[in-house]
Structures are given as C-alpha cells and as structure tokens.
From TrEMBL:
Its main location: membrane. GO terms for biological process: transmembrane transport. Keywords: Cell membrane, Membrane, Transmembrane, Transmembrane helix, Transport. The chain crosses the membrane at residues 17-37, 77-97, 109-129, 135-156, 177-197, 233-251. It is a multi-pass membrane protein. The lineage of its organism: Bacteria, Pseudomonadati, Pseudomonadota, Alphaproteobacteria, Rhodobacterales. Belongs to the binding-protein-dependent transport system permease family. CDD domains: TM_PBP2. SUPFAM superfamilies: MetI-like. It comes from the Bacteria. This is ABC transporter permease. It is found in: Cell membrane. One of its GO terms (cellular component) is plasma membrane.
C-alpha cells in the first residue's frame, strides 16, 4: 500500500511538472515575438526570422549534420559539468563545515572568477591542443566556483535546529547529513548547478569555436565564415534545445525528488 501511494505521489508530481511547462512555453513565445520584431526592424542580414531559423535547423537535422555535432558538444559539456559538480559540491560542503577553509578559499574564488573563460581557453589550447581536454578543463575552472558557492551557502544557511532534533531522536551523523542537511543544502546547490550547466554549454561551444575542435562551435565558425546568419542562428537554437533537454531530464527530476519536503511543508492551498 505504501509503495502504491508513493507511486501515485510521484505520478502526481510528474503531472504538475509537465503542466508547469506551459509557463516556459509562454516565455519562449515572448522571445519569439521579440525576435520577429527585431527581424522586421533590421532585416535578414542582421537577424533571420524565427521561422526561417527553424527551417534551417530542421534542414540540418534532416541532412544528418546536426546529430553528431550536438552529441559531441553535449558530451564535452556534460563531462566538464560532471567534474565541476563533483569537485565544487565536495569542496563547498567541506568548506561550509570548516570556517577556516572557507576563509582560505575566498581569494582563490576571486582569482578564478576574475579571469575570463576565454583566457582559460587560450591557456588550455596551449596545454592540451584542440582536444576534449581543452573543453573539459575550461569548463571545470570556469564553472566550479559557482557550484562551490552554492554548496557553501547551502551549508551555512541550513537550519541547525533540525539537525539537533534528528540527533536527539538517535540519528547518526551520516543519516543526519543524508536526510536532513543534504536536502536543505540542495535548495542552494541546485540553482548553482543549473547555472553551471548553462555555463558548461556556453564555454564548450566557445572553446570549440576558438580551438577549431569540431562540434557546434566548429559549425558556428563555418557559418560565420560563410556569413550564413540563418545557419548560425539554427546552430545556436539547436544548442539551446540540447541544454534545455539535459536540464529538464537530468537535473530537474533529481531536484524535485530531493525537495519533496517543500511541498509537504507548504500550507494547504499554497502553491509556490
């Protein structure tokens, strides 16, 4: 019976999650309207019409050129994102529980955030050449500080009273962290992870373009050389679509599972 109730609860949350996509579609429609207005104001050479861009994207998919390049860029972005998520989360949680470590890390964060990603791309190209390592290292250095800060904020802003209450009821340190602290940390961590994922895709495409390492960045470089605005915007649209798909398939479901307590804690009739 408990398993059946849990399954119904997950299905209900999945239904609400899918229904909430209407708000996102409305936002995309607004962007499309502004895009169309810009096209009418400046013409095809500056900004191709949204429908023409979609037609160019459909042509790239039909020709089979897009799938492999999107897969390559997505794999590179996810490799770098996985490294920065793992290292940033572990280091941020450790620093959050250690004030001395947190104070020591602040100048390092300022240094990493102060150097633009393009500088790391140039250095990585010198170190590793036009390879997957160049993309992964650039993403790691650029996005890890964001995840680190999110993990630290989650630790330092958690409700310590809940941890003390769990200890009174006999929960050990590992159980308290997994079932009490980790769920509170996730409230600050997941927005940072989503931001890091977007940065991973942006940095991956930028590194591919500058290093001539193939992928979507290489395709954008060719479109720029041919002054093909429609194809360039089509590649950008396809990359954004891949980012949205990864976010809503990989991160959002995990976040919804870990933040069930938010819905349980909300008063009847209150929707966030």
């Amino acid at each position: 019976m408990n398993l059946f109730a849990a399954s119904l609860d997950r299905l209900a949350r999945l239904g609400r999650f899918l229904w909430s996509a209407w708000a996102g579609l409305a936002g995309l429609a607004l962007i499309g309207a502004l895009w169309q207005a810009g096209h009418e104001a400046y013409g095809d050479f500056i900004l191709t019409a949204p429908l023409d861009t979609l037609a160019a994207a459909a042509r790239l998919l039909h020709e089979g050129r897009a799938q492999d390049l999107l897969a390559l860029t997505t794999a590179r972005a996810l490799a770098g994102f996985g490294l920065c998520a793992l290292i940033g989360t572990a280091a941020g949680v450790a620093a959050g529980y250690s004030p001395a470590t947190l104070r020591l890390s602040r100048p390092v964060l300022t240094l990493l955030l102060g150097v633009p990603p393009i500088a790391w791309i140039v250095l990585a190209m010198i170190w590793f050449g036009p390879s997957d390592m160049t993309v992964a290292v650039t993403i790691l250095i650029s996005a890890t500080p964001v995840v680190f800060v999110g993990a630290v904020e989650g630790v330092v802003t958690r409700d310590r009273g809940l941890d003390d209450m769990a200890q009174v009821f006999g929960a050990g340190p590992v159980r308290r962290f997994l079932f009490v602290s980790a769920r509170q940390i996730s409230a600050q961590l997941f927005p940072a992870l989503i931001l890091a994922l977007g940065s991973a895709f942006k940095v991956a495409i930028m590194a591919e373009l500058l290093a001539n390492a193939g992928g979507v960045g290489g395709a954008l470089a060719r479109a720029r050389a041919m002054l093909d605005i429609a194809e360039a915007l089509a590649w950008v649209s396809l990359a954004v679509a891949a980012l949205i798909a990864v976010e809503y398939v990989l991160i959002r479901p995990v976040r919804a599972e870990l933040e069930r307590w938010r819905e349980a804690a909300a008063p009847w009739g209150v929707k966030r």
